[in-house]
Design brief:
Layout (H helix, E strand, L loop, with lengths): L1 E2 H8 L4 H9 L3 E3 L2 E2 L6 E2 L5 E3 L2 E2 L7 E6 L31 E2 L8 E7 L2 H8 L7 E8 L4 H9 L12 E8 L4 E8 L6 H8 L3 E10 L2 E2 L9 E3 L2 H9 L1
Parallel strand pairs: 9-13
Antiparallel strand pairs: 1-4, 2-3, 2-5, 5-6, 7-9, 7-15, 8-9, 10-12, 10-13, 11-12, 13-14
The chain binds uracil (URA).
Length: about 240
């Protein structure tokens, strides 16, 4: 048995607030009767209709992984690479069809959503959505406000011009000639952050993704650990 409002947001593609509104407006029925209270529990065999159309209860699962270094998240251009794929970290879940939403380089760590919901995956990676991703980068070299300005103007690459990006310098270490910065980009081209820093003659030494849209990496997750997204987090990413 599962709560009606949870089913509507998990399988009907509604946010929790829209589900509430639909219920209030009498747009939801269970076994032919209108239900306005989302807290009632319904079973697998109950027929739920939204605007007279069945809500198909396909078991979608959504996980947040703190990707460790050394794992690949793509199956295409790294086919020759025999390193493990991020999905193998969730093998004990026994869920078929899991895939990472977007990709991180093998040596990049941090937030990666893993799901079996193709529609959501497609939506979150669609370039037209401009979802902002935030990274913490440790780079070789001392960053200055000229770098911040250059990031804010965008860079010309062979196949595209990057959109303005935000660079916030968090720390500079003159002894070791390194800097740590926060970078926010709203695109996801191949090696984009690394290539932007290279344009400023800086090599990325470490890269970690800490947020995607309004979803933040759970800092209690150690690299390689994952957990299911909470209802609130699922709502947040569905609003992206
Ligand atoms: N930019 C990169 O260069 N690498 C990543 O993994 C993600 C963004």
């Amino acid at each position: 048995m599962e709560r009606l409002d949870k089913i509507l947001s998990n399988y009907g593609g509604l946010t929790r607030s829209t589900a509430k509104e639909y219920l209030k407006k009498g747009r939801i029925s269970v076994n032919g009767s209108i239900f306005k209270d989302g807290s009632i529990k319904v079973s697998e065999s109950d027929e739920i209709l939204m605007d007279n159309k069945p809500v198909v209860r396909k078991k979608f699962r959504y996980f947040m992984l703190n990707k460790p270094s050394g794992y690949i998240s793509s199956t295409e251009d790294e086919q020759a690479d025999t390193s493990p794929n991020v999905v193998s970290l969730l093998k004990n879940e026994g869920v078929k069809g899991l895939f990472p939403v977007g990709r991180l380089d093998k040596d990049t760590t941090g937030l990666l959503i893993i799901t079996n919901d193709g529609e959501l995956g497609h939506r979150l990676t669609s370039p037209s959505r401009n979802i902002e991703k935030c990274y913490i980068a440790e780079v070789d070299g001392i960053l200055t406000k000229e770098d911040t300005e250059a990031f804010s103007k965008g860079f010309e690459f062979k196949e595209f011009t990057s959109k303005p990006a935000k660079l916030e310098i968090l720390n500079t270490d003159t002894e070791n000639n390194t800097s740590i910065a926060k970078v926010r980009i709203s695109e996801g081209k191949y090696h984009q952050v690394k290539r932007m820093f290279l344009k400023r003659n800086c090599k990325v030494l470490k890269l970690q993704r800490v947020s995607e849209g309004n979803l933040n990496l759970d800092e209690t997750l150690k690299p390689g650990e994952y957990r299911e997204l909470t209802d609130e987090e699922l709502d947040l990413i569905q609003q992206n």
